[in-house]
Amino acid sequence: MKAAGIPKRDERGRTIDVHAMRTTFGTRLSTSGTAPRTAQAAMRHSDIKLTMNTYTDPKLLEVRQAVERLPAFAPNRAEPHQPVPESAGTGDPKGQFLAIPDTMRAMTARLSEERAQCETLEVSTKKPQ
Predict the structure, then answer these.
(1) Which of 2, 8, 12, 22 is most buried, by CB atoms within 10 Å?
(2) What is the pTM of this model?
(3) Residue 79 and residue 109 in one domain
(4) Final residue of a domain: which of 60, 84, 110?
(5) Chain centroid offset of residue 48 CA
(6) What does the pLDDT look like over 41-79, one tens digit per residue?
(7) Residues 50 and 67 reside in one and the same domain
(8) CB 8 within 8 A of CB 16
(9) Do both 42 and 90 map to the same domain?
(10) Among 27, 7, 26, which Cα is nearest to 17's?
(11) How many independent structural domains does the chain possess?
């Protein structure tokens, strides 16, 4: 890196070394949509946890975009072709509820919180122009 004129530390004080390059590689594999098992193989790791927890930077993952790509859904009703059996505990004899309405409200609220966190993270990580 010295011969290429690449400084050892960047403007944020982070050390640039082989492991940093591996983290960039792992993160880019993840953000490109590469399956985790494929990324593990590409990085020649024996443990998926090493690939996902050490060599993938969660601050650089596109969580917001991933959530926004989820298909739209009706909060309380399933599509007619997706009945849920009564034994699933929905209490709906026709099997039309995807989940107990209170559970869906809680899930929707949690999704809203996560979106807000993503927006905050996105704003805080943008470089001033």
Answers:
(1) 22
(2) 0.46
(3) yes
(4) 60
(5) 16
(6) 999 999 999 999 988 888 888 887 878 887 776 555 544
(7) no
(8) yes
(9) no
(10) 7
(11) 2
